[in-house]
């Protein structure tokens, strides 16, 4: 299934870099093994350089992905965060070192046979969703692990899991899913995704494999397309690329962007 979709070629979700805390908090993304290229977008870490004197709010913008995450010094406390149709903020304090696995859309449900809709717009203890993965994390990691060790252990686990799991997907859904990515989310669900599935079937497939409707997923994809392009606030006003992506007007664009990001486009792209 993943080879058919070629997700990495079509979609590169962006999470804004951590800027609010200056040099106190670091965020970086690490590539998985090449054989996991279309399953996992990245491994990531969010860590402090020193103990924080005041709380830090980490904002996660909508990206269509599902993430597993845990604190390296307390790996038994591991979580999964589902598809979110708006931004989420996590207030963090003290000292921390979080590790995450960011799955491409469709990958987590396909790999673990979990209905993505059950995880949408929330996070849950991983042991209640996939106990096997939760136990692996709890028993395999500690604060002594460096980044290379973390990546190697995760690669080994997911390569083994991928080898054991048959990952099939309906070809009609794959066609609709790919069409959304190829068109940067600027699609008409009724016209462009008419691929032999009834509206009810299409919704059921998207809810299972992605976590929400085709329409909502398309909105997230076009938002991510704008994030990836990183237009300046001035070029947004002059070029009005939001019209090309199917927004009705500037007010519609700003409202949707703020819902997904937590800031207006002008604030997000300033500087």
**Helix-strand pattern:** HHEEEEEEEHEHHHHHHHHHH
What strand order characterises the main sheet?
A: 1-2-7-4-5-8
Q: Report the span from N to C terminus.
A: 41 Å
What is the number of E strands?
8
Written overview of the protein:
This protein is of the alpha+beta class and 271 residues long. Helix content is 41%, strand content 18%. It has helices at 2-5, 7-10, 107-112, 131-140, 147-164, 171-182, 189-192, 199-209, 214-229, 233-239, 241-244, 250-261, 265-268; strands at 25-30, 40-48, 56-60, 66-71, 74-81, 88-92, 97-103, 123-125. Strand 4 (66-71) and strand 5 form a beta hairpin. The radius of gyration is 19 Å and the shape is globular.
Produce a short descriptive summary.
The chain is an alpha+beta fold.
Write the layout of secondary structure elements.
Blueprint: H1 2-5, H2 7-10, E1 25-30, E2 40-48, E3 56-60, E4 66-71, E5 74-81, E6 88-92, E7 97-103, H3 107-112, E8 123-125, H4 131-140, H5 147-164, H6 171-182, H7 189-192, H8 199-209, H9 214-229, H10 233-239, H11 241-244, H12 250-261, H13 265-268
Key features of this structure:
single chain, 271 residues, six-stranded antiparallel β-sheet, two-stranded antiparallel ribbon, 18% strand
